[in-house]
Amino acid sequence: MNIGIFSDVYFPQKNGVSTAVKLYKDEMEKLGHNVYLFIPKYSKNYKRNEKNVFEFPAIKFLFEKEQRIALPLSTDIFKIKDLNLDIIHSQDPFSMGIFAEFMSKLLKIKHVGTHHTMYEYYRNYLPLIIRPTLKQTQRMIRNWCLKLDKVISPTNNIKDLLVSYGVPDDHVIVIPTGIDTEKFNKEIIWNLRDEYNILPEEKVLLFVGRLGQEKNIDFLIKVFHKVFHEERNIRFVIIGDGIEKNKLEELVVDLDLHERVIFTGSQPRENVIDAYKQADLFIFASYTETQGLVVLESMAAGTPVVALGKMGVYDLLNHENAGGIMVKDLNEDIFVHEILKVLKDENLYNTLSKNAINFVKENYSIEVSVRKIIDVYKNVLEY
């Protein structure tokens, strides 16, 4: 099968959608399919060494420098027809998603899309003068979904949300974004403790993700401040970058935690996986996750999770024996209680760690997810 994947984000951008697209492409190619990726060009100086990737001129999004707005004005447009695509799979409704819709109609190719992101919670990145209302954003999402031949949702929770917006129930298929579990079995190369002088007896709490307001990292830092008063041999490692970094660093200084909290900045994926495996506990309080890939990745590494149970994360941790503890509300004291309980109870910790690995392998491997996506393609092509 010849598959065209259209996305507005891809590596070197580090986020859940970039990871998902890379995993889709690699696994589909392992199965013998030809996968062609259409993305914005990241920068003039960034040289990509990957086959079947078509880059289009792009400009930086004014209000979020890591994001790109593609301008599909390239001679590569004329090459698309020669690829004989069987299916188009778009990952968002923006510049490349619009281009995907155009090519789908022009070439009469079926068009599937995945709803990765809760765009409603990202409106604050736009200035008020051009910021859509909540209703307008929901209408945009609904209209995009209705133009697709089928919508893929990572969780049942997100499917229910799309249905509430007016998307027909049978138009949405739930397929979790999988994890490449084999990569979590490799030996550790990046020694996090050596690099940041973390003592052997010190516990490590970990957060991985973009440093944005919706991730509630300031809440996690305040939680860590309280944990530190109960458990002195502990550090908090924050991996990622974003517009909130300066504010978060200031908060760390204000709370006198500058020797306890480590900001590593963005890291290569291999380093991130090594960090999961060296951490003692992963903590997460985002309320915008359609699935929460970083939560799954931590569990794949055998590192238990204490996380806010909203949206996609709820669908993960609501399962019995999932390998994590779900906190229902943003309550600092409850978070602190659950973190300390896991760290101090060795039997509980070991049980959560074992359950986490098994839960991901059995339910969220990339092999299982991609085979389900290919089945969606086949079903769409039959109509």
UniProtKB/TrEMBL annotation:
Domain Glycosyl transferase family: 190-358
Segments forming domain Glycosyltransferase subfamily 4-like N-terminal: 15-183
Pfam families: Glyco_transf_4, Glycos_transf_1
Coiled-coil regions, chain positions: none
Gene Ontology molecular function, alphabetical: glycosyltransferase activity
Classification via InterPro entries: Glyco_trans_1, Glyco_trans_4-like_N, Glycosyltransferase_grp1
Protein name: Glycosyltransferase involved in cell wall bisynthesis
Species the sequence originates in: Marinitoga hydrogenitolerans (strain DSM 16785 / JCM 12826 / AT1271)
